Amino acid sequence: MTATDMDSKHLTCLVTGATSGIGEATAMGLARRGATVVMVGRNAERGQRVRDHIISSTGNSSVELMLVDFASLAQVRDLAAEFTARHTHLHRLVNNAGVVKLRRETSIDGYETMFAVNHLAHFLLTHLLLDTIVASPAARIVNVSSHAHHFGWLESDDWQSEKRYSAMRSYGGSKLANVLFTYELARRLEGTGVTANCLHPGGVASRLGQDNGWVGKIATSAFRPFALSPEKGARTSLHVTLSPELDGVTGHYFAGSRERNSSKRSHDRDLASALWRDSERMVGISQEA
Ligand SMILES: NC(=O)c1ccc[n+]([C@@H]2O[C@H](COP(=O)([O-])OP(=O)(O)OC[C@H]3O[C@@H](n4cnc5c(N)ncnc54)[C@H](OP(=O)(O)O)[C@@H]3O)[C@@H](O)[C@H]2O)c1
After folding, report:
1. Which of 165, 171, 183, 253 is catalytic?
2. Rounded to whole angstroms, how far apart are CA atoms 40 and 210?
3. Checking CA distances to 237, which of 94, 191, 201, 244 falls within 20 to 30 Å?
Protein backbone atom coordinates (compact mmCIF):
# COMPACT_ATOMS: atom_id res chain seq x y z
CA MET A 1 0.00 0.00 0.00
CA THR A 2 1.33 3.48 -0.81
CA ALA A 3 0.68 6.72 1.05
CA THR A 4 -1.46 7.72 -1.93
CA ASP A 5 -3.77 4.79 -1.27
CA MET A 6 -4.00 5.72 2.39
CA ASP A 7 -6.43 8.43 3.31
CA SER A 8 -5.01 10.75 5.99
CA LYS A 9 -7.97 9.67 8.15
CA HIS A 10 -6.34 6.26 8.49
CA LEU A 11 -2.98 7.61 9.54
CA THR A 12 -1.69 7.55 13.09
CA CYS A 13 0.89 10.29 13.52
CA LEU A 14 3.15 11.23 16.41
CA VAL A 15 4.60 14.74 16.56
CA THR A 16 7.20 15.64 19.16
CA GLY A 17 7.35 19.22 20.41
CA ALA A 18 3.70 19.63 19.42
CA THR A 19 2.95 22.18 22.15
CA SER A 20 4.49 25.16 20.38
CA GLY A 21 5.66 26.68 17.11
CA ILE A 22 6.24 24.43 14.11
CA GLY A 23 5.24 21.23 15.93
CA GLU A 24 1.92 22.72 17.04
CA ALA A 25 1.18 23.90 13.48
CA THR A 26 2.18 20.47 12.13
CA ALA A 27 -0.13 18.71 14.60
CA MET A 28 -2.91 21.13 13.63
CA GLY A 29 -2.35 20.44 9.91
CA LEU A 30 -2.43 16.67 10.43
CA ALA A 31 -5.57 16.89 12.60
CA ARG A 32 -7.25 19.08 9.96
CA ARG A 33 -6.67 16.29 7.43
CA GLY A 34 -8.41 13.82 9.75
CA ALA A 35 -5.41 11.88 11.04
CA THR A 36 -5.15 10.49 14.55
CA VAL A 37 -2.53 12.74 16.13
CA VAL A 38 -0.47 11.97 19.18
CA MET A 39 0.97 15.24 20.40
CA VAL A 40 4.07 14.89 22.50
CA GLY A 41 4.76 17.76 24.87
CA ARG A 42 6.54 18.50 28.10
CA ASN A 43 4.27 20.94 29.84
CA ALA A 44 0.87 19.47 30.85
CA GLU A 45 -0.98 22.77 31.06
CA ARG A 46 0.31 24.10 27.72
CA GLY A 47 -0.21 20.70 26.12
CA GLN A 48 -3.83 20.51 27.25
CA ARG A 49 -4.50 24.04 26.04
CA VAL A 50 -3.01 23.34 22.61
CA ARG A 51 -4.84 20.02 22.34
CA ASP A 52 -8.18 21.69 23.15
CA HIS A 53 -7.42 24.40 20.57
CA ILE A 54 -6.58 21.84 17.86
CA ILE A 55 -9.73 19.83 18.57
CA SER A 56 -12.00 22.88 18.58
CA SER A 57 -10.38 24.34 15.42
CA THR A 58 -10.43 21.12 13.38
CA GLY A 59 -13.42 19.20 14.78
CA ASN A 60 -11.11 16.17 15.00
CA SER A 61 -11.28 14.65 18.48
CA SER A 62 -8.65 11.99 17.73
CA VAL A 63 -5.91 14.13 19.22
CA GLU A 64 -4.04 12.74 22.22
CA LEU A 65 -1.41 14.28 24.45
CA MET A 66 1.54 12.39 25.90
CA LEU A 67 4.03 14.07 28.20
CA VAL A 68 7.79 13.65 28.24
CA ASP A 69 10.91 15.57 29.09
CA PHE A 70 13.36 14.67 26.33
CA ALA A 71 16.20 15.57 28.67
CA SER A 72 15.49 12.21 30.34
CA LEU A 73 16.06 8.97 28.40
CA ALA A 74 14.01 7.08 31.02
CA GLN A 75 11.03 9.31 30.15
CA VAL A 76 11.57 8.61 26.42
CA ARG A 77 11.33 4.90 27.22
CA ASP A 78 8.11 5.48 29.20
CA LEU A 79 6.68 7.47 26.28
CA ALA A 80 7.43 4.67 23.79
CA ALA A 81 5.87 2.10 26.15
CA GLU A 82 2.76 4.25 26.60
CA PHE A 83 2.44 4.76 22.84
CA THR A 84 2.81 1.08 21.96
CA ALA A 85 0.35 0.10 24.71
CA ARG A 86 -2.27 2.36 23.13
CA HIS A 87 -1.50 2.02 19.40
CA THR A 88 -0.70 -0.84 17.06
CA HIS A 89 0.39 1.40 14.16
CA LEU A 90 2.48 4.50 13.62
CA HIS A 91 2.37 5.75 10.03
CA ARG A 92 4.14 9.06 10.59
CA LEU A 93 6.76 9.88 13.20
CA VAL A 94 7.65 13.59 13.14
CA ASN A 95 10.74 14.16 15.28
CA ASN A 96 10.36 17.90 15.75
CA ALA A 97 11.08 18.92 19.37
CA GLY A 98 14.15 21.08 19.73
CA VAL A 99 15.94 23.41 22.05
CA VAL A 100 18.64 26.11 21.93
CA LYS A 101 20.80 26.71 25.01
CA LEU A 102 23.04 29.78 25.06
CA ARG A 103 25.12 28.30 27.90
CA ARG A 104 26.25 24.69 28.04
CA GLU A 105 23.90 22.61 30.21
CA THR A 106 23.55 18.90 30.72
CA SER A 107 20.53 16.60 30.64
CA ILE A 108 19.34 14.41 33.51
CA ASP A 109 21.53 11.67 32.00
CA GLY A 110 24.57 13.95 31.93
CA TYR A 111 24.68 14.65 28.18
CA GLU A 112 24.97 18.16 26.67
CA THR A 113 21.33 19.30 26.53
CA MET A 114 20.98 20.21 22.84
CA PHE A 115 22.68 16.98 21.74
CA ALA A 116 20.50 15.06 24.24
CA VAL A 117 17.13 16.63 23.36
CA ASN A 118 17.58 17.37 19.67
CA HIS A 119 19.39 14.12 18.78
CA LEU A 120 19.67 11.39 21.42
CA ALA A 121 16.04 11.45 22.62
CA HIS A 122 14.77 11.19 19.03
CA PHE A 123 17.33 8.52 18.18
CA LEU A 124 16.06 6.42 21.12
CA LEU A 125 12.37 7.15 20.47
CA THR A 126 12.72 6.12 16.81
CA HIS A 127 14.52 2.93 17.81
CA LEU A 128 11.86 2.00 20.39
CA LEU A 129 8.98 2.67 17.97
CA LEU A 130 10.61 1.03 14.95
CA ASP A 131 8.77 -2.31 15.09
CA THR A 132 5.44 -0.46 15.21
CA ILE A 133 6.52 1.83 12.36
CA VAL A 134 7.72 -1.04 10.16
CA ALA A 135 4.38 -2.82 10.78
CA SER A 136 2.53 0.25 9.44
CA PRO A 137 2.03 0.45 5.67
CA ALA A 138 4.04 3.12 3.82
CA ALA A 139 5.27 4.66 7.05
CA ARG A 140 7.47 7.75 7.13
CA ILE A 141 9.95 9.15 9.61
CA VAL A 142 10.45 12.90 9.34
CA ASN A 143 13.26 14.63 11.22
CA VAL A 144 13.13 18.40 11.64
CA SER A 145 16.70 19.64 11.22
CA SER A 146 17.86 23.12 10.20
CA HIS A 147 20.11 24.92 7.72
CA ALA A 148 22.12 25.62 10.91
CA HIS A 149 23.57 22.14 10.33
CA HIS A 150 25.77 23.73 7.63
CA PHE A 151 27.91 25.47 10.27
CA GLY A 152 27.47 22.94 13.09
CA TRP A 153 30.33 21.59 15.17
CA LEU A 154 30.11 17.83 15.56
CA GLU A 155 33.18 15.73 16.27
CA SER A 156 33.29 12.04 17.11
CA ASP A 157 35.72 12.73 19.95
CA ASP A 158 33.52 15.51 21.39
CA TRP A 159 29.80 14.73 20.83
CA GLN A 160 29.04 16.60 24.06
CA SER A 161 30.81 19.88 23.13
CA GLU A 162 32.99 19.49 26.22
CA LYS A 163 36.15 20.77 24.50
CA ARG A 164 34.44 23.83 23.04
CA TYR A 165 30.90 25.15 23.22
CA SER A 166 29.15 27.79 21.16
CA ALA A 167 25.36 28.03 21.34
CA MET A 168 24.89 28.35 17.58
CA ARG A 169 27.65 25.97 16.47
CA SER A 170 26.75 23.29 19.02
CA TYR A 171 23.05 23.74 18.11
CA GLY A 172 24.12 23.37 14.46
CA GLY A 173 26.00 20.23 15.49
CA SER A 174 22.83 18.73 16.97
CA LYS A 175 21.00 19.58 13.73
CA LEU A 176 23.85 18.00 11.70
CA ALA A 177 23.29 14.91 13.87
CA ASN A 178 19.63 14.98 12.71
CA VAL A 179 20.74 14.86 9.05
CA LEU A 180 23.43 12.21 9.58
CA PHE A 181 20.91 10.10 11.55
CA THR A 182 18.30 10.48 8.79
CA TYR A 183 20.65 9.32 6.02
CA GLU A 184 21.97 6.38 8.06
CA LEU A 185 18.41 5.42 9.06
CA ALA A 186 17.27 5.56 5.42
CA ARG A 187 20.12 3.20 4.46
CA ARG A 188 19.28 0.80 7.30
CA LEU A 189 15.54 0.84 6.46
CA GLU A 190 16.02 -0.06 2.80
CA GLY A 191 13.59 -2.82 1.84
CA THR A 192 11.24 -2.23 4.78
CA GLY A 193 8.91 0.22 2.97
CA VAL A 194 9.62 2.87 5.63
CA THR A 195 11.15 6.15 4.46
CA ALA A 196 13.26 8.62 6.44
CA ASN A 197 13.74 12.24 5.40
CA CYS A 198 14.75 15.47 7.08
CA LEU A 199 14.09 19.13 6.53
CA HIS A 200 14.71 22.79 7.27
CA PRO A 201 11.43 24.58 8.13
CA GLY A 202 12.69 28.12 7.39
CA GLY A 203 13.36 30.87 9.90
CA VAL A 204 10.24 30.77 12.06
CA ALA A 205 8.90 33.06 14.80
CA SER A 206 8.49 30.51 17.57
CA ARG A 207 9.54 30.13 21.20
CA LEU A 208 12.87 28.56 20.18
CA GLY A 209 15.73 30.15 22.12
CA GLN A 210 13.45 32.27 24.33
CA ASP A 211 14.17 30.11 27.35
CA ASN A 212 17.58 31.80 27.84
CA GLY A 213 16.86 34.82 30.04
CA TRP A 214 16.78 38.36 28.67
CA VAL A 215 19.49 37.69 26.03
CA GLY A 216 17.34 34.97 24.48
CA LYS A 217 14.26 37.20 24.52
CA ILE A 218 16.08 40.12 22.85
CA ALA A 219 17.76 37.90 20.22
CA THR A 220 14.50 36.16 19.30
CA SER A 221 12.44 39.35 19.15
CA ALA A 222 15.03 41.00 16.85
CA PHE A 223 14.65 38.03 14.47
CA ARG A 224 10.82 37.95 14.66
CA PRO A 225 9.96 40.60 11.99
CA PHE A 226 11.92 38.65 9.36
CA ALA A 227 10.59 35.24 10.35
CA LEU A 228 7.84 33.02 8.97
CA SER A 229 4.71 32.25 10.96
CA PRO A 230 4.67 28.75 12.51
CA GLU A 231 1.92 27.83 10.01
CA LYS A 232 4.20 28.69 7.07
CA GLY A 233 7.10 27.02 8.86
CA ALA A 234 5.08 23.79 9.13
CA ARG A 235 4.46 23.61 5.37
CA THR A 236 7.63 21.68 4.59
CA SER A 237 7.01 19.31 7.52
CA LEU A 238 3.47 18.64 6.27
CA HIS A 239 4.71 18.23 2.69
CA VAL A 240 7.38 15.69 3.66
CA THR A 241 4.96 13.93 6.03
CA LEU A 242 1.98 13.66 3.70
CA SER A 243 2.68 14.43 0.06
CA PRO A 244 1.80 11.45 -2.16
CA GLU A 245 4.55 12.48 -4.57
CA LEU A 246 7.08 11.51 -1.89
CA ASP A 247 5.91 7.88 -1.70
CA GLY A 248 9.07 5.78 -1.51
CA VAL A 249 11.36 8.84 -1.48
CA THR A 250 13.93 8.36 1.26
CA GLY A 251 17.22 9.77 2.54
CA HIS A 252 16.69 13.35 1.40
CA TYR A 253 16.85 16.87 2.84
CA PHE A 254 14.03 19.32 2.10
CA ALA A 255 13.49 23.07 2.46
CA GLY A 256 10.70 25.19 1.00
CA SER A 257 8.91 21.87 0.26
CA ARG A 258 11.63 20.99 -2.25
CA GLU A 259 14.58 18.67 -2.12
CA ARG A 260 17.79 20.58 -1.37
CA ASN A 261 21.45 19.80 -0.88
CA SER A 262 22.55 19.31 2.68
CA SER A 263 26.15 20.01 3.68
CA LYS A 264 29.06 17.93 2.38
CA ARG A 265 29.76 16.79 5.95
CA SER A 266 26.21 15.44 6.35
CA HIS A 267 27.12 12.83 3.70
CA ASP A 268 30.15 11.60 5.66
CA ARG A 269 29.33 7.91 6.16
CA ASP A 270 32.13 7.34 8.65
CA LEU A 271 30.81 10.16 10.83
CA ALA A 272 27.25 8.78 10.47
CA SER A 273 28.32 5.28 11.56
CA ALA A 274 30.34 6.64 14.46
CA LEU A 275 27.35 8.74 15.55
CA TRP A 276 25.03 5.73 15.28
CA ARG A 277 27.34 3.44 17.23
CA ASP A 278 28.04 5.96 19.98
CA SER A 279 24.38 7.04 20.19
CA GLU A 280 23.39 3.39 20.73
CA ARG A 281 25.87 3.22 23.57
CA MET A 282 24.77 6.55 25.06
CA VAL A 283 21.06 5.65 25.06
CA GLY A 284 21.83 2.12 26.26
CA ILE A 285 20.50 0.06 23.38
CA SER A 286 23.70 -1.64 22.23
CA GLN A 287 23.56 -3.82 25.35
CA GLU A 288 19.98 -4.89 24.50
CA ALA A 289 20.88 -6.23 21.03
N1 LIG B 1 12.23 28.41 14.61
C2 LIG B 1 13.14 28.33 13.64
O3 LIG B 1 13.50 29.35 13.01
C4 LIG B 1 13.74 27.00 13.28
C5 LIG B 1 14.64 26.96 12.20
C6 LIG B 1 15.19 25.74 11.84
C7 LIG B 1 14.85 24.60 12.54
N8 LIG B 1 13.99 24.67 13.59
C9 LIG B 1 13.65 23.43 14.31
O10 LIG B 1 12.25 23.30 14.37
C11 LIG B 1 11.90 22.49 15.50
C12 LIG B 1 10.73 23.12 16.25
O13 LIG B 1 11.18 24.34 16.82
P14 LIG B 1 10.24 25.63 16.99
O15 LIG B 1 10.91 26.71 16.26
O16 LIG B 1 8.84 25.30 16.70
O17 LIG B 1 10.49 25.92 18.56
P18 LIG B 1 9.51 26.03 19.83
O19 LIG B 1 8.36 26.91 19.56
O20 LIG B 1 10.42 26.37 20.95
O21 LIG B 1 8.99 24.52 19.99
C22 LIG B 1 9.86 23.52 20.44
C23 LIG B 1 9.07 22.36 20.97
O24 LIG B 1 10.00 21.39 21.50
C25 LIG B 1 9.61 21.09 22.85
N26 LIG B 1 10.74 20.79 23.71
C27 LIG B 1 11.84 21.54 23.94
N28 LIG B 1 12.61 20.96 24.87
C29 LIG B 1 11.98 19.82 25.23
C30 LIG B 1 12.25 18.80 26.15
N31 LIG B 1 13.34 18.81 26.94
N32 LIG B 1 11.39 17.77 26.26
C33 LIG B 1 10.27 17.75 25.52
N34 LIG B 1 9.93 18.67 24.63
C35 LIG B 1 10.78 19.71 24.49
C36 LIG B 1 8.92 22.35 23.34
O37 LIG B 1 8.12 22.02 24.48
P38 LIG B 1 7.63 23.16 25.50
O39 LIG B 1 6.36 23.70 24.89
O40 LIG B 1 7.40 22.44 26.78
O41 LIG B 1 8.72 24.18 25.59
C42 LIG B 1 8.12 22.74 22.11
O43 LIG B 1 6.94 21.97 22.01
C44 LIG B 1 13.17 22.33 16.33
O45 LIG B 1 13.72 21.06 16.10
C46 LIG B 1 14.09 23.40 15.78
O47 LIG B 1 15.46 23.05 15.90
C48 LIG B 1 13.41 25.85 13.98
Report:
1. 171
2. 20
3. 191
Q: In whole angstroms, what is the distance from residue 192 CA to residue 268 CA?
A: 23
The verdict on whether 253 is a catalytic residue reads no
pTM above 0.90, yes or no: yes
Asked whether residue 288 is domain-assigned, the answer is no
Residue-wise pLDDT for 141-159, tens only, equals: 999 999 999 999 999 999 9
By residue range, what is the domain housing residue 207? Answer: 8-283
Distance CA 211, CA 3 (A): 38
What is the total count of domains within the chain? 1
For the CA of 230, the closest atom of ligand 1 is 16
Q: What is the rounded distance in angstroms from the CA atom of residue 72 to the CA atom of residue 111?
A: 10
Q: What is the pLDDT of residues 63-75, one digit of tens each?
A: 999 999 999 999 9
From the CB of 96, is ligand 1 less than 6 Å away?
yes
